[in-house]
């Protein structure tokens, strides 16, 4: 007789991975893409710039939060058993390791390969005479008028150093031999990499004539010409440094009479958040390090000594500025489902949606039909109202333009603009003001909750009644990101979903306390309880010898209660496949705890962003899509919507074409080991190579049209 496994000890820290360290491990996977020679060269540069940008944000938001806990003398450990002070030290150690690998990748691998392709990132000291003349002329004509050197002495206090700014700490000597300090901000209004004149090289073996691109770092051009800024003074030395500040501003909503104005003030305060990281070069002398440490109110451990350049995110300028398509991914052209191609051209889009739920898988499917849907609603005389949530819409948004047109045509428009979408606040504030000026009903969500759901509802008069047409999605109404983020959306006019959508908007715009929804899972109302119930149902199936399988595709798995429940499901015999792109705080493969759990992460050309939750349910499969990751913030502190996929063809597509392909991927996938480390999966002798993203591009190009 087999005895049951002993119950899991809920507070066992060894079963949880620290969230911040898990996020750093995701950055390692991004960095691996920069180091992967199978990726096109300029794409590797892009991955390196993404790594740099991600690390900046990690320090601005996550590490800054841990610092606040340390400064508040909070010593209580998290679920992983680490205190805030221990987390901070561990983050620094791992971050330095990753930074070192990133700079090694740039200098030892990428720059030599770029040079062979005619792309030269040069040190100022290595420029030819003619190149120096061009760089110096650029300094005199463009850079010099912008610069503002600031003296540092008793009469000139240490100036404010803004977030993400690159600066020069300059030592100058006057005619009496007395040394003085000055600070100079490297202008971020100019390209960090200054392009020099292009030239053509010799003929290649294949008969082509390569074009050579030359760049030099802006700060080096400035350093070489500092004498023009300090006439009559001797420039002794100049030392670059880059500052990262706390950007996780807290919004005191309860005391805010005007959330729009409060957010504008919050954005301004972000520039003055406490300093969390200062990057410098090894050559910076101790007296200047001490000057920065004292005046920026940091510890020596907040100084990060790095190789050039300070701020890898600037490398994106190479990717954007060099038009060598052979060094980038081949272009992919998203397709429009055949069922919609005729509808868009004959203006019967609503009729097609009325007859069919339509599934979209971006970026493989075009985002254009979603914009067409809102445009059609704006121009259709039978449409009475449009209600929509906007989280990250970006600049020059055709979605907002369509809503503005709808308002001008007399439709009733209600839009929830989430002002607290981090780093998109300014853009969203601008759109909110423009919509308000056009007469749109604009609301900013619920106090204490960030609205993260993605939903648009069109109310149309048909016959003697009305019909609601709904678009639900896992991703934002952002045309640009729809080309690089993997997301899934659906058109439907299901009556129960329409009723739920109406109740949801009443919840968002008024004082509704609706607690029961027919089909939608809504956070913070019923999502957690319903999701946990779905997992428990699989546990009961397994305990009773029935078929049980969970496949959860999400961006992050952090919530301790969900992790605990998944451990319980594993012990009950439920097969669990977790496709977690970013942070996963669960440990798989632990004997008698999580041996039925497999954790995989896919990092590739597109950012995996969809959330797909599959429940086998003893053969009566249920699939849900939505905006919510498995984190406390999503389940308890945001307005999220998770919705069922009910059309059999859609369930079949998501199960067989999407989830199964992710589980078979052996090119872009890393699998987590029981110790928390990730190992890249490689094609075996019996398995053909499968890159899930490449496969989906090919599949959609040749087989799309049945959904």
Structure, described:
The protein is of the alpha/beta class and 707 residues long. It is 37% helix and 22% strand. The protein has 19 helices and 27 strands. Strands 14, 18, 19, 20, 21, 23, 24, 25, 26 and 27 form a ten-stranded mixed beta sheet that branches. A hairpin with a 5-residue loop joins strand 26 (669-672) and strand 27 (678-680).
Oligomeric form of this entry?
single chain
- Overall shape: globular
Distance between the termini: 50 Å
Low-confidence stretches: 1-7, 250-260
Mean pLDDT: 89
Count the strands?
27
Biggest β-sheet, characterized? Answer: 10 strands, mixed
Percent helix, as a range, is 25-40%
Instruction: Calculate Rg over CA atoms.
Output: 28 Å
| Helix/sheet category | alpha/beta
Number of helix segments? Answer: 19
Percentage of β-strand residues: 15-25%
Briefly, what is this?
With 707 residues, the chain is α/β, with parallel strands linked by helices. Helix content is 37%, strand content 22%.
How are the secondary structure elements laid out?
Blueprint: H1 19-35, H2 41-71, H3 84-116, E1 119-122, H4 129-143, E2 150-152, E3 166-173, E4 179-185, E5 193-200, E6 211-217, H5 218-224, E7 234-245, H6 259-270, E8 275-280, H7 286-295, E9 303-305, H8 316-321, H9 338-346, H10 349-355, E10 358-362, H11 368-379, E11 383-390, H12 398-408, E12 412-417, H13 425-437, E13 441-443, E14 450-451, E15 455-462, E16 465-473, E17 485-492, H14 495-509, E18 521-523, H15 527-543, E19 549-554, H16 560-572, E20 575-580, E21 597-602, E22 607-608, E23 611-615, E24 622-626, H17 632-636, E25 638-645, H18 648-664, E26 669-672, E27 678-680, H19 692-703
Parallel strand pairs: 1-6, 8-9, 11-12, 12-13, 14-25, 17-22, 19-20, 20-21
Antiparallel strand pairs: 2-4, 3-4, 3-7, 5-6, 7-8, 10-17, 11-15, 15-16, 16-17, 18-25, 19-23, 21-26, 23-24, 24-25, 26-27
Helix pairs in contact: 1-2, 1-3, 2-3, 9-10, 11-12, 15-16
């Amino acid at each position: 007789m087999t005895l049951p496994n002993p119950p899991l000890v809920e507070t066992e820290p060894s079963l949880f991975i620290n969230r911040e360290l898990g996020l750093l491990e995701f950055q390692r996977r991004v960095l691996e893409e920069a180091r992967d020679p199978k990726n096109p060269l300029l794409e590797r540069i892009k991955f390196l710039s993404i790594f740099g940008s991600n690390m900046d944000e990690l320090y601005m938001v996550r590490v800054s939060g841990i610092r606040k806990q340390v400064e508040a003398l909070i010593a209580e450990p998290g679920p992983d058993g680490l205190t805030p002070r221990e987390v901070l030290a561990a983050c620094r150690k791992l971050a330095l390791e990753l930074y070192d690998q990133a700079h090694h990748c740039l200098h030892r691998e990428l720059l030599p390969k770029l040079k062979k392709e005619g792309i030269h990132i040069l040190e100022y000291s290595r420029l030819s005479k003619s190149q120096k003349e061009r760089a110096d002329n650029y300094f005199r004509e463009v850079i010099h008028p912008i610069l503002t050197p600031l003296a540092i002495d008793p009469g000139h206090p240490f100036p404010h150093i803004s977030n993400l700014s690159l600066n020069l700490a300059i030592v100058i000597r006057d005619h009496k031999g007395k040394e003085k300090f000055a600070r100079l901000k490297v202008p971020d209004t100019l390209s960090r990499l200054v392009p020099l004149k292009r030239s053509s090289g010799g003929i290649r073996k294949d008969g082509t004539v390569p074009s050579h691109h030359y760049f030099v770092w802006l700060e080096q051009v400035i350093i070489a010409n500092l004498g023009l800024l300090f006439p009559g003074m001797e420039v002794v030395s100049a030392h670059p440094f880059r500052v990262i500040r706390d950007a996780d501003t807290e919004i005191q909503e309860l005391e805010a009479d005007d959330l729009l104005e409060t957010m504008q003030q919050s954005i301004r305060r972000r520039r003055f958040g406490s300093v969390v990281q200062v990057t410098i070069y090894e050559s910076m002398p101790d007296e200047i390090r001490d000057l920065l440490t004292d005046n920026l109110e940091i510890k020596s451990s907040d100084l990060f000594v790095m190789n050039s350049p300070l701020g890898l995110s600037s490398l994106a300028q190479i990717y954007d500025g060099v038009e060598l398509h052979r060094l980038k991914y081949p272009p992919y052209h998203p397709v429009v489902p055949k069922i919609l191609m005729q509808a868009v051209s004959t203006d019967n889009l609503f009729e097609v949606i009325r007859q069919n739920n339509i599934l979209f898988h971006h970026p493989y499917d075009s985002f254009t039909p979603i914009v067409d849907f809102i445009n059609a609603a704006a121009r259709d005389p039978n449409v009475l109202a449009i209600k929509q949530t906007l989280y990250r819409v970006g600049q020059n948004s055709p979605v907002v333009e369509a809503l503005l047109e709808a308002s001008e045509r007399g439709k009733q428009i209600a839009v929830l603009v989430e002002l607290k979408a981090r780093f998109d606040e300014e853009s969203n504030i601008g759109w909110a003001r423009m919509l308000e000026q056009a007469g749109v009903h604009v609301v900013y969500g619920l106090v204490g909750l960030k609205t993260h759901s993605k939903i648009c509802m069109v109310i149309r008069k048909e016959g003697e009644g009305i019909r609601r047409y709904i678009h639900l999605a896992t991703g934002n109404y952002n045309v640009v990101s729809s080309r690089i983020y993997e997301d899934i959306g659906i058109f439907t006019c299901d009556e129960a979903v329409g009723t739920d959508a109406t109740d949801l908007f009443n919840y968002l715009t008024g004082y509704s306390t609706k607690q029961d929804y027919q089909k939608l899972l809504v956070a913070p109302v019923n999502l957690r309880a319903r999701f946990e119930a779905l997992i428990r149902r699989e546990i009961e199936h397994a305990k009773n010898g029935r078929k049980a399988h969970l496949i959860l595709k999400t961006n992050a798995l952090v919530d301790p209660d969900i992790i605990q429940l998944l451990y319980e499901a594993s012990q009950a015999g439920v097969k669990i496949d977790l496709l977690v792109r970013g942070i996963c705080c669960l440990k798989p493969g632990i004997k008698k705890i999580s041996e039925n759990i497999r954790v995989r992460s896919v990092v590739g050309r597109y950012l995996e962003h969809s959330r797909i939750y599959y429940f086998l349910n003893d053969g009566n499969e249920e699939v849900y899509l939505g905006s919510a990751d498995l984190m406390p913030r999503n389940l308890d502190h945001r307005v999220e919507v998770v919705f069922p996929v009910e059309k059999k063809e859609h369930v079949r597509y998501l199960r067989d074409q999407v989830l199964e392909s992710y589980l078979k991927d052996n090119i872009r996938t890393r699998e987590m080991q029981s110790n928390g480390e990730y190992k890249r999966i490689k094609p075996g002798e019996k398995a053909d190579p499968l890159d899930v993203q490449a496969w989906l591009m090919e599949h959609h190009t040749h087989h799309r049209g049945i959904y």
